[in-house]
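Memo to structure team: turn this sequence into structure tokens by end of day. - J.P.
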Amino acid sequence: MKNVFIYSLLFFSFAVLAQQKDKNLPKGNEEFKEKKYAEAEADYRISLSKSPTQAISSYNLGNTIYKQNQASEAKLAYLKTIENAKTKLQKHKAFHNLGNIFMKEKKYSEAVEAYKNALRNNPKDEETRYNYALAKEYLKNNPPPKDDKKKDDKKDKDKDKDKDKKDKEDGDNKKDNKDKGDEKDKKDEGKDDGDKKGKGDDKDGQPKPQPGNPSKQRIENLLDAVNNEEKKIQDKVNAKKAKGKPVQTEKDW
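Reply from structure team:
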């Protein structure tokens, strides 16, 4: 296998019917032949501005930019050509040159796909077939690096899962602790109510005497004493009133 790329650009092989209506396009072609690439680029851009979907203008623009060692920018012109191409021949040439750019950038996987698409549109082109085989050989000897980003994403996802699991466990533990605390509060509250009932009430629900507080019987005795005092006072008042009245010897029946 030869270690030399066939970076053959397929220049000016599109139909020239468009040149009859576009003065800048043929002018750019003449400048390109004279290797006046900057002037040719200017005319191709003017031509493309007049007819943005004209595939031949974008294709020739890509060739001119490529000759000025601006491969990445030329790639955009070829992609635009593929988008607006009307025939398989146009697509074949754009894909072929696109594959050359990927080979120059050492993007062998993309180059293989570009040459493959070129062959789909023109299976008989031997230069494209050679470049396709060469790109596959380079891809085999220079496999793309493994996608470490996927591994990192997986690690991040695992970390997120572990974090969510831990958060859930912490939340459950907090809830359990809260429930236990609520149950304890209820038990303590019930205990307090029982203590209050046991200390302040007897079995029939009546208040029990507490130290320093008068008992029920004592209160009743005090009330009786007060009533007796009031009765004595009332008797004295009545006795004074009775002095001015005649004494009755007989009881009223």
